[in-house]
Amino acid sequence: MGVSEPNTPIANDLLGFLGNYYDSGEFGVIFEMKQFPQWLVKVVNLDADDDENLVNQEQALFMEQVFEIGNEGGVPNLIYYKELALNKLYKNHIKNILLRGNYFKAIEVLNMEEGDMIAIWIMEKLEHIGEDENLTNEENAHKVGEAAALIFENYGFIVEDLHSNNYGQTVKGDWVILDPQILTEPPNEVFLMDNEQLVNWFIKNKVWLKDGKASTMIRN
Fold first, then answer.
1. What is the pTM of this model?
2. Is the distance from CB of 77 to CB of 124 less than 8 angstroms?
3. What's the rounded Cα separation, in Å, for the pair 144 and 209?
4. What 8-state DSSP symbol labels residue 39?
5. Which DSSP state fits 181?
6. Helix, strand or coil for residue 153?
7. pLDDT tens profile 67-104
8. Cα–Cα dist 110/61, whole Å
9. What is the mean pLDDT of the chain?
10. Of 123, 98, 107, 95, whose CA–CA distance to 48 is shortest?
11. Neighbours of 114 (CB within 10 A)
12. Among the four residues 2, 94, 114, 160, which has the most C-beta atoms within 10 Å?
């Protein structure tokens, strides 16, 4: 069964579609979409300090391009992207959702101050996160490599940090990268590769399995 799509949210209507807390990582926080829990809302602070600032800005740039071009493969379906200044109302709304569940770490991740620019995007919730246990390590690595190669071919971005929390499968069984870091200075060699060479390059250089533990094939 396909993913049910809500109507496109009204611009800046953060209060209207931000649902319950879902998860958080090192740089961003994820919420369910109100009334549509099969869609997830990610919020990142583009004015965060130091490394977080660069990571969030690069990922937001990538997601904005995915939204503008449309889904061409390698990423979850995306139905909304917006950047906006964090005013007092939005800040308190996000903070209250997190405080209700005692998600204090998520508040620290967002590190919100009024006036900060934040980026928001809405993407489909995946059917499964991580490797497919019915496949070998080598087969899983190849699937992730194929998704990463598709992203480069379709959007021009090299993604990294591909541990098992950052890729998965959609309800249709497509392999996608959901929370990548972006390699800002890709090596020139990748621009000369065909699809098969790109897949092998990712397998060799950028694919990790089982929460960062590379398979024997990848270490060799």
1. 0.87
2. yes
3. 9
4. E
5. E
6. helix
7. 999 989 999 999 999 999 999 999 999 999 999 999 99
8. 18
9. 87
10. 107
11. 12
12. 94
Amino acid at 19: G
Q: Which residues, 6 or more positions from 159, have their beta carbon under 8 angstroms from its beta carbon?
A: 62, 148, 151, 152, 177, 180, 181, 182, 183, 206
Q: How far is the C-alpha of 79 from the C-alpha of 104, rounded, in Å?
A: 28
Dihedral class, residue 157 (left if φ above 0, else alpha if ψ from -120 to 50, else beta): beta
Q: What is the pLDDT of residues 14-42, one digit of tens each?
A: 888 999 999 998 889 999 999 898 999 99
Token couple for 149: 């190669």
Tokens 């005013």 found at: 87
Q: Which three-class secondary structure state does DSSP give residue 80? A: strand
Q: Is-contact 191 102, C-beta < 8 A?
A: no
Residue that has been written with the tokens 């499964």 in this structure? 128
